[in-house]
Amino acid sequence: MATASAVREVFHFSSPFSAVLLLAELLLLAQAPAFNIASPFCHHHIPRAREVIYKVYLKESRVMKRNINEHLRIKTIYDRSVEELLPEKKHLIKNKLFPQAISYLEKTFQVRKPMATVLLSRQCVTNQYLRKKDDPHRYCREACAEHTKCGPVIVPEEHLQQCRVCNTNGRNCQTIGEADKEGIRDADFILYVSALTTERCGQENIIAYAAYCQLEADMDRPIAGYANLCPNMISTQPQEFIGMLSTVKHEIIHALGFSAGLFAFYHDDDGNPLTARYANGLPLFNESLGVYQWSDKVIRKAVRLWDVRDNNILPHNIFLLVTPKVVEEARKHFDCPNLEGMELENQGGIGTELNHWEKRLLENEAMTGSQTQNRVFSRITLALMEDTGWYKVNYSMAEKLEWGRGKGCDFVMKSCKYWINQQQRKKEPVAPYCDTLRSNPLQLTCRQDQRAVAVCNLQKFPQPLPQEYQYFDSLYGVLPKDLPHYGGSVEIADYCPFSQEFSWHLSGEFQRSSDCRILENQPETMVQRNMGQIPFASFKSQLSLWNSAERN
C-alpha cells in the first residue's frame, strides 16, 4: 500500500500542447488576469515628396563585378539616440534585433545592379532644385539646407555629396564647400536607426516605423532609409522578442520596396519602368493620394461579388497587385489559376491601406497590416520584392504560410460568409474562419499550426457593422435583430471571424502569450516535455505562482 506522501495524481496527454491547452483553460477558470486578442494596425508612413530625394546620382556609377551568390548589403548607422538608451535596450537593438533582422534580409535579397559607393544628395533650404543639361547632379536654388535628414535622423556630413547651388534665376551654378568625401563603400542600402520619442510615438501605439528617404537615378531603387524605435515601447522581455524582431523586419521591408509610395517606381526584368515617366524623369504625381501614381501594370482595381446576410450580394471594391511573380505565387498558394493578382489591404486608414496584403486572405503573413499571431514572411512577399525590379530573391528563405493554402478560388475571390456557408453545407470545417461566440467559460482551440492556444474572435460590436461586413443569418443564442452587430474583432480582415492566439495582460500591460515555442510561456514545472505528463500537484503550484505573480 502506498503512503499518502507517495501518492500523486498524473494527467496524461497525447502531446505537450494538449497540456498547454488544458492549463490555459484552468488558468482562465481560476480567474487569471484579462487576456487580449487585440491587434493594432501598422500605419506605414509614406514619406511626403519633399521628404524624399529622387534621382540621386551615384558618383561611381559603373556597375561592380560581383559574385552571383553575394547578398544584399545593408549598412546600419546608429543614431546617438540609440547610444543614450538604457544599457539593456541599447544591447537589444544593437546586438540582437537589428543584426538578426538584417541578417535575414541580406540572405533573402540581392541587388540586381549594385554600385561601388553610395554618396547621398543634400536637401535644399527652399526645397526647390534644378538640374543642368548634361549634368546628372541636383542643384539647390539659393542654398543647401544646413542639415540633410533621413526621417528624423540627421545624415552625417561624410555621407553627403558636395553642396551644389544656383541663384534664384537658375544661373551662376557652382559647387560650395568641401569636395565629395569617399562615401560609403560596399553598401547597397544605408539604414539610419534611431530611438527618438517623436510625435508619431506619442500619437500612435507603435513599436517602430521605417521608410526610404533617397532613391538612386538609374533604377529608382531606395539607397537610404531609416527605422525609428519608440523608446517607451521597446521591451526587453524575452517573450516579446519574436514579435519585435518580426516588426523590425516588416518595417525595413517597407523601406526597401513594399510601399505605396514606391509602386510607381517598379521596373520589369529588363530594367524598364512599369509606369511611364515624364520629362523630369518621374511619374505623374497624384495630389489626392500624396504619392506618385502607379500604372495598371502594377496595381489594378477590381470588383468582387460579395455575399452578405439575407441573401444579398453587394459589390466589393478591391485593389490587386498584378506584377508577374506575385500573380504566379498567389495562384500557386491558393490553387486558383484565374486569380488576377494579390489583394492589397483596403481598410485601416492612411498607412495601412494599400501598403499591406489583405488581412482576410493572408492573415498571419508578416506584411499584413496588423500583428495577430505567428507572423511569417511568405513566398508572396518575396515575389513582390523581386517584382520591384531591384532585387533577386532567395526563395529558400521564405517561411511556410498555411493560411489559405490550397483553399481555391471561392476562398480568395468571395466573402468569408460564402466560404463558411459552403463548408457548412458540405459538413466540413469552416477553418481558417470560425463561427463560435466567445462565452464563459471560453471555448478554446488551437492555432492553425497547433503551436498556441486560440479563441474565435467573433464578437458583438456596439453599433451595426456596415452592410458589406454583415455575414451571419443566425448565431446560436443571438436574436435576429442583433445579428448585424456581430463580426470578427479584426477590422482589416473585413470583420471575418477567425481563431486567434491570445495573450495575458495585467493592467493593460503584456505578460505572456500562449505560443508554446516561447520558453517563458512553458516553464518546465508547467509542461514536462520529455515525459508528456504533468503532476497535478505541480499544476496547482504553477497556478498559484502565476496568480501570485499577476497580483504583484
UniProtKB/TrEMBL annotation:
> Which keywords are on file for this protein?
Cell cycle, Cell division, Cytoplasm, Hydrolase, Lipid droplet, Metal-binding, Metalloprotease, Mitosis, Protease, Signal, Zinc
Q: Signal peptide position in this chain?
A: 1-34
Q: Name one GO cellular component term.
A: cytoplasm
Any one biological process term the GO annotation gives: proteolysis
- Report the top EC class in one word: hydrolase
Note describing how the cofactor binds: Binds 1 zinc ion per subunit.
Q: Which cofactor does it need?
A: Zn(2+)
SUPFAM superfamilies with a match to the protein in the record: Metalloproteases ('zincins'), catalytic domain
Which residues does the Swiss-Prot or TrEMBL record annotate as the active site? 251
Q: Which GO terms describe its molecular function?
A: metal ion binding; metalloendopeptidase activity
Tagged with keyword Hydrolase? yes
What Enzyme Commission number does this protein have? 3.4.24.-
Primary site of residence? cytoplasm
Q: Name one Pfam family in it.
A: Peptidase_M8
Functional note: Metalloprotease.
- Family from the record: Belongs to the peptidase M8 family.
Question: This chain belongs to which protein, by name?
Answer: Leishmanolysin-like peptidase
Species this protein is from: Thamnophis sirtalis
Q: Which gene encodes it?
A: LMLN
